[in-house]
């Protein structure tokens, strides 16, 4: 994209320690590489033209790129990279991304309905969006549905049903689901109390987290 090349030229200095491959990929239009570049420049106190960045991102979103729509939603949600903080604007872009089957956007919508973030709190809509995301295989959504049943959030509390969801997500390698299974076995909620199984699931979760140190917490969208 042309805007990326302009953006990179606008930088006061080219970071000397940035992997040249990342720099080249960013210049070629890789979103992932661009975000790595931006984060690096922020840490190095190198000024970027956020207006150009926003323009490019909006252009990408207008072309129907779900990831760009989701990115814009997150930037509005957090008020970062020159975007004003706005839960309402964030919700609008999450909805646009969700309509293109972006499951993480669906999770954000569900969490917004849970917390009343930019919308009126609604447990039914929360569950509806998590189920839609889970139906597309999103393990975090599956875990969150299990958490909903474990806590009785807008539904009748059902530990056995919660276990079914946690197990399904755990089979996809979701560490939070594994921790929740450990909790159920440790306390005998919906299962026969079993300290050995609890420890087994905790160890599996730790192994996953060691491989992927950044994980999404339960019910955080």
From TrEMBL:
Gene3D superfamilies: Tetratricopeptide repeat domain. InterPro entries: Mitotic_Regulator, Sel1-like, TPR-like_helical_dom_sf. It comes from the Bacteria. This is Sel1 repeat family protein.
């Amino acid at each position: 994209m042309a805007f990326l090349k302009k953006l990179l030229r606008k930088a006061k200095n080219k970071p000397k320690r940035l992997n040249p491959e990342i720099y080249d990929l960013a210049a070629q239009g890789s979103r992932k590489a661009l975000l790595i570049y931006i984060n690096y420049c922020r840490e190095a106190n190198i000024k970027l033209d956020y207006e150009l960045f926003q323009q490019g991102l909006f252009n990408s979103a207008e072309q129907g790129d779900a990831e760009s729509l989701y990115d814009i939603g997150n930037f509005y949600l957090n008020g970062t990279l020159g975007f004003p903080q706005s839960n309402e604007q964030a919700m609008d872009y999450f909805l646009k991304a969700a309509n293109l089957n972006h499951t993480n956007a669906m999770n954000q919508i569900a969490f917004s309905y849970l917390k009343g973030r930019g919308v009126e709190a609604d447990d039914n809509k929360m569950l509806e969006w998590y189920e839609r995301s889970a139906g597309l295989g999103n393990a975090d959504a599956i875990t969150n549905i299990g958490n909903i049943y474990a806590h009785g959030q807008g539904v009748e509390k059902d530990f056995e049903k919660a276990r079914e969801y946690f197990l399904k997500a755990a089979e996809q390698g979701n560490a939070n689901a594994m921790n929740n299974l450990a909790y159920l076995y440790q306390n005998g909620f919906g299962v026969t109390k079993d300290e050995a199984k609890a420890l087994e699931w905790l160890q599996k979760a730790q192994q996953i987290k060691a491989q992927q140190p950044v994980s999404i917490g339960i019910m955080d969208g």
